[in-house]
Structures are given as structure tokens and as C-alpha cells.
Amino acid sequence: MADELLINITPMECRVALIENGTVNELFVERAAKRGLVGNIYNGKIVRVLPGMQAAFVDIGQSRTAFLHLNDMVWSRTQSAPNIFELLHPGQVLSVQVMKDMLGSKGARLTTDLSIPSRYLVLMPYGNHTGVSQRIEQEEERLRLRNLIEQLQQQLKLPGSLIVRTAAEGISEQEICQDMAYLAKLWEYIQRKQKEVEATGLIFEELPLPQRVIRDLASEDTSKIYVDSREIFHKLQEFVAEFVPSIQDRLIHYPGERPLFDLYNVEEDIQKALQTRVDLKSGGYLMIDQTEAMTTIDVNTGSYVGGRSLEDTVFKTNLEATQVITRQLRLRNLGGIIIIDFIDMQEAEHRDEVMKILEKMLERDHAKTKITQVSELGLVEMTRKRTRESLEHLLCESCPTCQGRGYVKTAETVCYEIFREIMRYARAYESQRAYTIVAHPSVIDSLLTTEAAAVADLEHFIDRIIKFQVENLYTQEQYDIILS
To answer: Is there a single domain that holds both residue 237 and residue 152?
Structure first.
């Protein structure tokens, strides 16, 4: 079954779902009030240089200063690595490009090695080599594209290096020439803006999400591209006619009354992608825990006992889990360090097969992934490049009650904290005649029922009256003790 792209437009946000084999595998969200910065080029001003970190903080006109590391800067690689203060100083203005959006409390990550993408190519004005996407596997086609690029680059006198994207496989010389001519004009425009923007300011803004996904994701495998906004549909028609004419007949306006995302069960998949537990069809399940440091994925057999033996059950569960894990990585846009705890397999042949399937499924991931190793404990350690916020961070915020812990203290625990607090007050303030406990209804209920005997003993021990007051606006962990 071919791939489909669903583009859902509202005045507040744009959402794009990538459907592969009838299943939602990737989701992109761009809100009007908070557009992503990745790909944008700015003139930035150096605010602070940190020699110890070989990095600098750069003001690009956003709410937080951005971060630029020496490794992400252009300098002669024939020499030994310079110190950052040899290249930068406070107040200096330079052109930078956003590599990673602001994530949590961290500012955007920058580079001075600019890259300007088109449909089939990526221009790196300060580079010095020609590259071909590793996903183009036929050596004959790789050689054809490399020779063609080098020839056209000399004709157009385009500086730097060019990277051939996967979409260029089998594309004619004329189409690639048009793509390169577009990049040449765009680079001239950027150079002109670099001189016009004197201090901090935007030089080049990346395309809006609908145009961007068509440029980056639409391919020969894409059978249909549905757009539920007539205005955006007409804009995309113009964009496709100029840059991707081969898919013009696949761009379709969806005018139906039933929401486009409901038609493909995307809304349901989004809600499931925000849950910790993911059920497998066999009866097993995954537990996905995302933290700031890393993401852990635990595989469990659950109620599945369909194998001929325990080893067979474990093997089949792990095989099914590899497909679901790779889908969840893409759908949730999980990045950074990822630890996968497959169920222990005794047979080496089974372990090798699971790893082989995992690597094969990751080949379809548009983000760069790398399996580093299988640890001594049998954990699969991998990384996935993160350029934008995960789905959870984009759509959710930390719970104000548990502060992101994922759990709250029991009413019983809070009762005992209150008892200890009252005893401290009784020792410190002997003149007080009574205490009023203000707390959540569940805590007050526990104090009046299961802990009633303990309250009576405490009143007798401190020789004070204890009163109670319910506060519905308090969380279960909140309480006050009023002295009177």
C-alpha cells in the first residue's frame, strides 16, 4: 500500500500526518503562535564566549539566547582546533542557522555551516565535497548523480558543496538543473540579506510546514496528498507546479464534512501516543517512559502465551515489539538516548533476528538513528537525532499536582506529615490552644475516619484541640496548619 500525506489546517495550527501502509507513522505540528526555527538563518550577535565549554551564547532575537559550539562552526580543518575566543568575541555579528529548536529550558542550537535545501539537493555554501544520500543504493545511479552535480555546479559557478537527496534518484538532468538554478538564486538572495541586516535579525525563513513536508516527504511512493483547506490547497498547487510537477495529480482538496484526521483515525492515534503503555496485538505491551535525560522502552509479554514454549513466546513478542517501537519513535518524535529492554532471549539466533528486524525497520525513519551496542545486561542502546520537540512536550505540560513525577503522595502519607508538623508546632509554640488543618477532601476524610484514633491520641499527647477545614482547590499534597 502506498504512502499518503494528510494536511489538516485550522487558523491556529497546521498538522500533517504521514500514513504508511494504512498506519499513522509520523506527525508534524506547527502552531501559528509558535512556529519552529529549524532551518532559519539569522544574523546573530555574540553575547558571551565560554572558553571552558568551547562555545558561545548568541542573540538571534528570540526569547532565549541560542547556543553555538566550536564543532558546529566553519574553520579550516587542516589546522588544529582553535580556541573559541580566537574565532569569536562579544558584540561580534555573524550569520548562523538553527539546527535544533528551543527544547524545554534550552535555547536553540546553532551552526555557522549553512545548509540550504531544495527538492533534490542541499547546498552547503561553505562545504568542499559532493555527497549522495546513502539511501540511494545502486552504485551506477550514485555515480551518475555525482558526475552530473559536479558538471552543473561548474556551469552555474555555485560555491561550496552539494548533497544529493534521496528524492533525486532517477530524476532527469533538466529537473536537477532547475533545482540547482533555484539554489543559486536563493544563495544570492541570502548573501544580499546578510549585508542588509546589520545587527540581529532574520535573513532567511524556512518554508511553512505544508510546503516543507511536500518538499521533504513526498516521493514516488506517495499516492495521495489530501489538504482540507481550499486556500492552502491553491498555495500548494502553485508550489508543486514550480518545484515538484511530477506529483501535481496527487494533490487533492478534501472538502468532506467528516474531519480528515477522524477519517484516518489520526486523532485516536495521537491520544494513544501520549500514553505510557502501548498494547501489542498479541497481548504483550510496551512501557515508554520519556525523561529529559533519555527515553526507556520496556517490552513485556503481558497476557500473550501463544508460543510453543517460553522462548518462542518471548521471541514472537520481541519481533512484534520491534515494529511497534520504530513506529512509536517516529510518531512521538522521540530523540536523544533511547534504551530498549527487550525480553531476555536465550538463543543467539533469536537475538540476532530481532536486532536485524529492528535495524531494517529503522531504515524508513527520516531522522538519523544509530544503534550503538547491546549492553552486557541485554539492553539495546541507540540514539535518534532530535531537531524539534517530542509530541509529548509539544502537546502537554508537567502536571501541576505531581510536578511531572507521574505520581502523588497518598492521603495516608500526607496525614502523617501533618501529624509530625503539628508536633513540631506544639514544641515551638506552647501558648497556642488549637490547630486547624486545611487540606484536600481526601486527606480530611482520612483524618476523620481511618486516622481518627491517631488524631485523638495526638490531641491527648499535645493537649490541644485539632479542627478540620476542607479546601477543594488544594491538591492532595497541599495542606496548611493554622494556629489559634
So the answer is: no
